[in-house]
Request: fold
Amino acid sequence: MTRDAGPARQGDVSPAPGEPFRGVFSTQSHGVVGFGATKRKVKQNIQVFAEEQPDGTFLVRNLNKNFIPSGKSRSVSRDTLLTDYLPEPDIYMNKVVPMMRRVRQAADAGDTHRTEGELMSAEFEYKTALRVDEEHIRATFGLGLTYLDRGELENAKLVCRRILTLEAAFGEEHKHLFNEFGIKMRKHRMYEQALRYYFKAYRLSKTDDHLLYNIARTYYERDKLRLARKFLALARAINPEFPEADALVKAIDRKAEEAGATDFSRIRHDDD
Reply:
């Protein structure tokens, strides 16, 4: 186990003083294969990436075939880690750190190409990162944004479905990518995908006023004005000083008036 191996941010392995312990450990799992006369006990060596948490426990994730942490994390105590797992510093330094650095560099290159409008090169770099770490959040968002920028909506929908399976994509550290992806989906009239995307985030956090606004904005653009009103009310209850929400309320009222509705029960498509 090593200190100062880098911060907890995905793909970032540069040293930083005061960061938690991070390292690779191995353990053996015991199982049974076969049936009857062919039945036998087997041992499997499992390598995990462990990272210390503020409360002194460790989150561990299995390493994939490319020596990248993947899958769901699980929590173990320090005593369990030191008793049941064997430290593997050579694997960490010679396998995990270089592969995480490689993924980070590919994602960085993809971001640079996308910013400069070099979308084919951006796609190549993001896919390079994802071939090594298929759960890399920044590369996944980047690939989806690249497809949206190129107007390749079917490919963007596939990426959206992938994002919905990655709970880490909805974390605070990825909020700017989350917002950019949602806005671009709305601009391409991918309303069904945008709502599925926003509601996944809503299930994880019901007190995000901007998320509620984004849901309301999507319903507004679909002409589902009653639902837009409902989620705007929730957003304004959390944040009464929300000028964008106030502006959207006025836009909803104008659209309702233009539709000739005397009340929201008569607005077209309001409760589909």
Remarks:
- The chain is about 55% helix and 15% strand.
- The beta strands are 22-33, 40-52, 58-63, 69-76, 86-87.
- The chain has a mean pLDDT of 87.
